[in-house]
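From the pipeline queue, job 12 of 40. The input is one protein chain; the requested action is below.

Action: predict structure.
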Amino acid sequence: MANPLDALVRATNRRATFSVQPAELIELVDEPHLLAGVAEIDITPPPGLPKAGYSKNAQTGVGFRTRLRARVIHLRCGRQSLAWVACDLLGGSSVVQHLVADAISERTDIALAGLMIGATHTHAGPGQFLGTDFYNTFASNEAGFDPEWAAFLVERIAEGVIRAHDTRQPAAAAFGATEVWGLTRNRSINPYVRNETIVDRRTDPQRKWVAINPELHLLRVDTLSSDETGADASRPLGAMVVFSVHGTGVPQHADEYNADLWAYLVGELRHQITPADGHAPVVGAVEGTHADVAPALRPGLAGHSDAKRVGRAIGAVGADLWHRLGAELDASPTIAAGFREVDLDVDAQRTAGGTTLPKRPAVGAALVAGAHENLTPVISKLPPFSAGHPKRFRPGDQHGAKWVLGSRWLQPLIIRLRHFPRVVPLQVFRFNRSLIVGLPFEITVETGRRLAAAALNDVDAQHVDHAVICSVANEYSGYVATAEEYSLQHYEGGHTLYGPNTQKFLAAHLESLAAATVSSASPHSEALPTRRWDLAISRYLMTPTEHDGTGPVFDGAARFVDPTATEDGYWELFWLDASPSALRWHEPIASIESEIDGQWQPTVHDGRTVTDDGWDLEIRSVGVEPGGHRYRLRWYDPSHHAARRHRVKLVPNNGRPEGTSTPFS
């Protein structure tokens, strides 16, 4: 069979049409003890890609403030082999999941059913890699599927999964939860309090009625080894966090790629659990039930400074949980994987548990008004677009209270059925007594509670008693609100494409898929025999070019800019260099050095070396000038080194030699 990745890259007409046939499941030999491997891969692209999350209000990327990454945690035990991938992107992608599974099929023992690709749901990463025309068009400020960008993601993530597989070693792991308070808020409280179950829970001592999901779940993985004396020499290997908060700490007018508050969450957690020997574990994070949950930013202070405050505080809570889980590490855990694809083009598959989804999805008027913290000017104040203006229910209308944008007669003429998400991937991982459920939707807090309960309905409570819902896994397919939330038609209800019964439909599937997963010794797979895509193309990713080997030229002296209420102070300087296409943006570009006792040494801030690998440096392209392409570097929050002299060091990159700036202080 032809390589589907080659077919994708060779697409030359206006549409990319390709397909994948999942590899057959291979029966694995029983492995009584846990083997684990990890990998971290940089997926930062060059400037020029549209950013996804804020739709037409987004910007095209011009560089990066915090790098975008994919982190892989691989587990092998029993007859199961899993890879959990966390990407700093809007969501997963069926294209990426299937093509990565195909790319690793001959190099690893990880099947499609065991490959979950989740996301932080940052609104500052590129789009144009999703599996549907609808979201490749409307999630970003520009439209179209970029084959080269999708292929870059597939190649990089596949490399990470293979690396994690090939470096696996004896390990022990634990999975647990804690609570985070005061750092998130419900952005859509009026629909939330309409839920009938909320009133019943107000006396619940576990506070399950609260409007946010405070649970932070963490998978801890340690190596198991001994030194030459036979003493225990285990060390932290990796971690994966599940938490519920929108990646919207950085406002929509920002034009740099960044991982939003998740960069600071992951960075703080990693810093606090890195042992004294400096061998840092790989730490990833994915979304939980976040659809109606936003970061608790201080009014008027959206931006990196407040996103850092929120993210680091959440990461610190995660670090406390990490340390507590040390007493629960298990070297022979029970793990399992189950996967199902539901084809909504097949009439029989649109019904589950007595609930039938409409044949045609519909975009609600409330979607156009935007979410609470990022409302669309003017439109958000006008009915029926404004939140809380449902239409009267008409018997037989499967979309209930939704005002269909453009009317139910005109919308089908503008958006064809095949452009919408038409295949629903559902995935279940098991770790001992917990289920980790991956869904392609943004899931509201109460929807998540109901789906978690459904996943446990038909499993043996003596063996499994907890379920965790992960949003935007393996594809991006919009929202799921409960029927009660949907009836009020705020943004979350207007963006629930398949109507008020979507949650019940998914619950029925999860009940049976979870039971099948838990009862199977090998991965359980109900993938479609052939997965097909037909996507409209637009090309944004720069074609890589060779660097001519000339050195960078710094342009002028560095200047210091004082901090404001929303932005840290920074040093700023510019340099001339080759075109952005001649730099590898997913490899190191710059660092800071300080003069100490007459010697230039790497600058260290708060125990972290100041490089573009962290959160202190922003690098962007600012245009072409005589003599080369102009770039800007900003070094944020440098006040702690004010008494020293510093310089910027540009490291070798794709044939470009290193260069150093004039010292400044």
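Job complete. The chain has a mean pLDDT of 93.
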